[in-house]
Structures are given as C-alpha cells and as structure tokens.
C-alpha cells in the first residue's frame, strides 16, 4: 500500500531522527518544519513545532522567544502516564486538547497502544500504526485505509551511503499538506508512546 494521491508527495528529511529536536526539510523545498524543546517550566517537557514554509539554510537554531510563531505545542506534562499531556493546535491562542481526548486507541477494549486515531482540524479522522507495511516504521491512514503519510526511520545497523542525508524520511501525500503539522505532532506523540512503552 502506497500513498494514494496523484501529486508529488512531500518528502521531508528528518535531519536528526530525534523526537525533541529536528528539522524536516522537503526535498523540493516546498515545506520546512522544525521541532524544538521549549523551556516553559522545570521538569515539564514541552515541544514546539514551527512551520517555516521553506528549507532551512542554517543549522538547527531555536527561534527567539516562545511567542515566536509556532504552529503546534506538545506539552507532555509531569506524569509519565501522559495523564496531564495536551496539544495546542493552530499556534498561540489555538485549540487546546487533552491528549486523552485527541490521540485515542482505536480499540476501546484494550487494543494496541501503538494503533491510535485522531480527528484533525480538517475534521477528518486519521490513524497511526507501527510497522504494518514493509519499509515504513510508522504508517498513517485515513478512514478509507488509504496511506496519507508514513515515517521511515533508518535502522542504525544500515550503512551510511550519503553523509549529506540522515536516511530518515517523513513522507506526506501532497493532498494532505494542510494537516502536515498535525501529522508531525501525532507522529511525535506515537513515537514517544512507543519509546516509553505507554
């Protein structure tokens, strides 16, 4: 199963492969997203996602001040079970949603923690699942089971063929570019849930 759209997908290179700090640069310079930690309160992990519109020509830097035009905020709270976690969509003053109401398990009866759904600001439902398709570490589908995005994390044991590329890619169907920030925010949350076995 591959992306279902007819356009050229956004092929965003994840420059570090890390959850908390990375740039996502589109191969064709149509999109550039940045993830950085924010120092809002001690011992409270918060991530900001910035939509910069085009490729970064400079090394990873944190935009000046939290008031800078971030597009999404992920507050993981102080409890490991994410019971205090929430997401802010649409930038400062945007929609605040507790994580438990946003990124829910698909099955209400004890299903996999790594199979979750969310309703995006475009009012459509999307689902993330881990390792369901060959070559895709994470796959996001719509309600018709069509792939709208996938994340491919390079296996550390794979050789490095090109020192200019990390080998980590976040691919988004061109038709879903308007929800790219939400797709990235939910991907980060899914990877966090997986890494911490939540």
Automatic annotation (TrEMBL):
It comes from the Eukaryota. This is Uncharacterized protein.
């Amino acid at each position: 199963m591959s992306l279902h759209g007819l356009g050229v997908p956004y092929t965003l290179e994840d420059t570090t492969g890390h959850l908390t700090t990375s740039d996502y640069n589109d191969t064709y310079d149509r999109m550039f997203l940045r993830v950085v930690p924010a120092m809002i309160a001690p011992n409270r992990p918060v991530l900001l996602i910035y939509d910069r519109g085009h490729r970064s020509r400079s090394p990873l830097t944190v935009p000046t001040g939290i008031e800078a035009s971030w597009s999404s905020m992920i507050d993981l709270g102080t409890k490991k079970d994410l019971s205090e976690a929430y997401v802010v969509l649409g930038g400062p003053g945007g929609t605040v949603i507790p994580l438990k109401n946003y990124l829910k398990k698909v099955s209400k009866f004890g299903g996999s923690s790594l199979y979750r759904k969310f309703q995006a600001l475009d009012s459509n439902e999307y689902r993330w699942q881990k390792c369901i398709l060959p070559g895709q570490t994470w796959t996001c589908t719509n309600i018709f089971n069509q792939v709208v995005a996938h994340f491919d994390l390079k296996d550390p044991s794979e050789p490095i063929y090109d020192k200019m590329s990390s080998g980590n890619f976040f691919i988004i169907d061109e038709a879903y570019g308007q929800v790219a920030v939400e797709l990235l925010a939910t991907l980060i949350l899914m990877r966090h849930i997986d890494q911490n076995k939540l």
